Structure formats: C-alpha cells, structure tokens
Amino acid sequence: MLKKRIVPAIDVLDDKAVKYVQFRNPTIIGDPAELGRKYSEDGADELIYLDTTASLKNQEVKYEWIRRVAEEVYIPFSVIGGVRTIEDFRLLLRAGADKVGVNSAAVNRPELLNEAASIFGKQCVVLGLDAMPIMREDGTIERWEVYTHSGHENSGRDVIEWAQEAAERGAGEIICTSIHKDGMKTGYDVELIKILSDNVSIPIIASGGAGKLEHISEVFQEGYADAALVASMIHYGHYSIQQIKQHLMDEQIPVRI
C-alpha cells in the first residue's frame, strides 16, 4: 500500500502567508519561506502554496517569494494560482517549484492541461479543483459544481465530469477543496473525496475542513484520499505534523516517518 502524505497548505497574499476561512477574510500568519522550512523540518511530505494575489487580483505571479521558498525547503512543493500559460509553468518550475497547479485557466481552456503534460510531464501538472455542493430541497447533496477564481465564480461544470476530463488530458493529481468546508474545522467532505477516488485513477489530495486528528484518518479510511492537506490545525499550533503522523500510525494508516 502506498503511504499517505501529509501536505501543509500555505496561502500567499502580497508575499505574506495568510489563512482564509471559506476563501475570504485573510489573516497574516507569517512568512511563506519560514513556514515552509518549519513544516518540512517537522515531517511534512510536501508543501502546497496558493498564490491568491495572482488568482484573486488577476495579477502576474510573483517569483521572488517562490525562489526564497526553494532556498529554504528541501521537500517538494507545488505552486497554484495565477497560472494561465505554458510560460507560467516554465517560469514557476525554473523558480524552484516541483509541481505547478492550475484551476481557472484550465476550466477556461482545458487544452492547457494537454500542453503542459506533453512538455513537462504529468508529474508536474496539478489540477486545483474547488467544489461547492448543490443542494436538493430535502437538504441532501445533488451534485458538486466547479468554482474558479479562488472560489468566487461558479463555472457551472460538474466536479466529477471535470475531474475525469482533466485526468484524461494530463493532470497528474488533483487537489480537491470543498469551499463550504474550508477553514471550518468540521472535517473534510469525505463523500466527495470518495466519489472522486472511485471515478479517477490519479491521486486525490483532500483539502478543506481538517480540524481534528480524526478528520484526517477518516478521509484516508473512508474517503480513500491519497494525501491530506492541512492548514488551520498546524498554522495555529493545535497539532504538529509529527502528532498527526503518530495518530495515523496508531490507526494503522501507513505514513512516512
């Protein structure tokens, strides 16, 4: 069995690390490179940086903070946000990123995934998938729809159908964030992660909602996620990555030590 990964997520706004709740109301929590070094030393398997300046403000990606991250951390890291072209992929990889994530631009022009995978390889191409449930009148979930621009615009696309298309076009893995769960600390959208895992063959990183150790073991055991993204529970010192991994080992879930 492949070992499960613990992946801290660091949102970056105007070169500062911040934390959002449901993609809104950012609070500054530190420096992107310093946080990355801290989490890598604590046992993180890789890191994900989300450049919300580029995605929300429609600005070009800033590379200086990415270069600083590359100098400080020794584990793989991905950068997502503001990626619109193949040249953006190339520049991010040159700046030190190991993987590049794309969301809005891929929804607008899916061929970008084909092009990136053919040039850089699928292992470098990450699909950022921000999902919101569409509810029936009885309060149950009918389906999930894809949101773009850091969760602010509804594309109208079905999440499962888009994930399948993205995988066929060349995405090497998917980071699936449930917007309604993000920052709420009530647990991942396990139902969505399980459906995704059943319908695509590439790795799924569960994102949005982790607040307790049990939430992480649940998304691995019941949602079949390949990796769990963590943010609030480590940013605010509630748990260390070592504590998370010890809990998973106690639950007989394979992780890297």
Describe the structure.
The two termini are 15 Å apart. The chain has helices at residues 32-41, 52-56, 64-72, 86-95, 104-108, 111-120, 159-169, 190-199, 213-221, 232-235, 241-250; strands at residues 5-13, 16-21, 24-30, 47-51, 77-80, 99-102, 125-135, 141-148, 153-158, 173-178, 204-207, 227-230. The chain has one domain (5-250): TIM Barrel, CATH 3.20.20.70. The radius of gyration is 17 Å and the shape is globular. By secondary structure, the protein is an alpha/beta fold. It has an 8-stranded parallel beta barrel, surrounded by 7 helices. It catalyses: 5-[(5-phospho-1-deoxy-D-ribulos-1-ylimino)methylamino]-1-(5-phospho-beta-D-ribosyl)imidazole-4-carboxamide + L-glutamine = D-erythro-1-(imidazol-4-yl)glycerol 3-phosphate + 5-amino-1-(5-phospho-beta-D-ribosyl)imidazole-4-carboxamide + L-glutamate + H(+). This is Imidazole glycerol phosphate synthase subunit HisF. Its EC number is 4.3.2.10. Its main location: cytoplasm.
Which residues sit in consecutive blocks of at least 5 with pLDDT less than 50? none
Reported by name, the CATH topology is TIM Barrel
Structural class: alpha/beta
Distance between the termini: 15 Å
CATH superfamily name? Aldolase class I
Number of strands: 12
Question: What strand order characterises the main sheet?
Answer: 1-4-5-6-7-10-11-12
Number of helices: 11
Number of domains: 1
CATH class: Alpha Beta
Biggest pleated sheet = 8 strands, parallel, barrel
Proportion of helical residues = 25-40%
List the quaternary state of the chains. single chain
CATH second-level architecture: Alpha-Beta Barrel
The fraction of residues in strands falls at 25-35%
* Overall pLDDT score: 92
Q: H/E order of the elements?
A: EEEHEHHEHEHHEEEHEHEHEHH
Task: Evaluate the radius of gyration.
Answer: 17 Å
What spatial form do the alpha-carbon principal axes imply? Answer: globular
